């Protein structure tokens, strides 16, 4: 089976949800409807739990609007197609960078066309991510290099393979080593990401850059947690979850 687009449908009308599920099952073979929701509140929960690629989102629901739902997220890492009976929302919808806007009753041909175009965008992004991960895996062999960390009163010369992870704290970065050292320097994590991205290090969260050779396991609960060889537990950003699953598959090959 090829790459499947993971879709969540959020609409407060049962017959609309059921109709969309059936249409997608019949006409879009590379779509997997992983969940549905009937309100703003339940929609937020489903998105947080399942991390879809694409959300088909009603605008006017019993407990609020689709815009209320989107405003609850600090960052939106999924594509959006609005499905609504109210065309006056179109301009506002596109301010949320919606991929498209479907009016009820949904025309099957228009739905399929929209899903196909959206799927192409999602696949291109996924392929780019996977290519980056493959490059990172190849880069692990470069870990015989050393790097200098300058603190206020010391200069540390560290083997890359002995650095488990780097953690951001505003304008400072702390290096955690396999020997249990915690070395803080006055550099941003972004600077180290640029230096180490081709040496097997991966930005799994805005505050954490991990060494791929030190991944011990991936725990799927709470959105995803990476446990490293020093038992440090690193949260996985929701937009990085699928990348990490792909990465672990590659490591197992």
What do these coordinates show?
The protein has 253 residues and is α/β, with parallel strands linked by helices. The chain has 2 domains: 133 residues, Response regulator (Rossmann fold, 3-Layer(aba) Sandwich), CATH 3.40.50; 110 residues, OB fold (Dihydrolipoamide Acetyltransferase, E2P), CATH 2.40.50.1020. 35% of the residues lie in helices and 31% in strands. The protein is built from 7 helices and 17 strands. It has a 5-stranded parallel sheet, sandwiched between helices. Helix 5 packs across helix 7. The protein is elongated and about 70 Å long. It starts with a strand and ends with a helix. The mean pLDDT is 85.
List keywords for this structure.
Rossmann fold; 17 strands; 2 domains; 7 helices; elongated; 253 residues; OB fold (Dihydrolipoamide Acetyltransferase, E2P); five-stranded antiparallel beta sheet; five-stranded parallel beta sheet; alpha/beta
Helix share of residues?
A: 25-40%
Distance between the termini: 18 Å
Instruction: Examine the coordinates and then state which fold CATH places here, giving the name of the CATH topology of the largest domain.
Output: Rossmann fold
**How does the helix and strand content classify structurally?**
alpha/beta
Question: Could you spell the SSE succession in H and E letters?
Answer: EHEHEEEHEHEHEEEEEHEEEEEH
Number of strands: 17
Instruction: Give me the side-by-side strand order of the main sheet.
Output: 2-1-3-6-7
What is the overall pLDDT average?
A: 85
State the shape. Answer: elongated
Tell me the β content.
25-35%
Radius of gyration: 22 Å
**Assigned CATH class of the largest domain:** Alpha Beta
> What's the total helix number?
7
Question: Uncertain runs with pLDDT below 50, 5 residues or more?
Answer: none
